[in-house]
Amino acid sequence: MKLVEYTVRGFADLMASSEPAPGGGSAAALQGALGTALTAMVCALTVGKKKYAEHEELARESEQKANALRVQYLDVIDRDTEAFNGVSAVFAMPKATEEEKMARTAALQEALKACTKTPYEMMELALRALELTSELVGKSNASAASDLGCAALSLKAAIQGAWLNVLINIGGIKDEAFTSEYRKNGEQLLEKALPLADNIYQQVLDSL
Fold it and tell me: Domains along the chain?
């Protein structure tokens, strides 16, 4: 059963159990899905309102984009856990001979790289979602301003949570070119995304 098919209670119960996955990566992706869903909701509450007629096109386009990002986040929830399960599977591989040990080591490196790529993807999605959300501040239904702020907070949690998962995985990767690339690019995403999230939140806060 896919994680996205669980009830909210079932997902939370599974995460609270002794099972190692789903963990922080899937939680970060869920935060991203919730954030993009809130952004889409604010757009839906803006579309068709005479008061916001001048922003109708922006709201419609943003709603479509936010929902597309939400679908991508829901997809990566399960892919992140699948990637982790790939790492776990490596530890069941035989290691009696030198050849088996080498194969096990190589498999672990590839599995860790896969575990790095999914949270990094979450980070990219978060930046795109925050840029989208930022454009709506002051141009969307004021009655849903708090929801827009909550969207920014969820997306900030999503990108920071994903970053922690990138870091813990590259810590075990011996390919220096790979680790350097993901660390550098991840830091660049954070530099763009975090100020955006904080600015959205502050603007919403000031408007209430």
Answer: 3-207 (1.20.120.680)
